[in-house]
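[Q] Does anyone have a clean structure-token version of this?
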Amino acid sequence: MLFGFVFSKTDEHLQGRVATVISAPAQVLSMFCSGIAGSLLPAAGFTMTAGFFLAALVASALIAALTPAIKTIPAADEWEHTHL
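[A] Here you go.
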């Protein structure tokens, strides 16, 4: 829903730039995941490694769910009348 809202409010000629701003940080962080997992597996074992990544996912979900700017995004049928 967040991406749909952002792209619905972005001019067509700027959507590529917005997509880059949104996806580049996630891609940069994801390139380290295999290295972190490879380092943690022999040191901490599978259960601790899986727990570490699960904790990161839960923290991300909590940030998204509790951020006021995200919580106040209106329903899709109201996007046309909403200002950023």
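[Q] Thanks! Anything notable?
[A] The chain has a mean pLDDT of 86.
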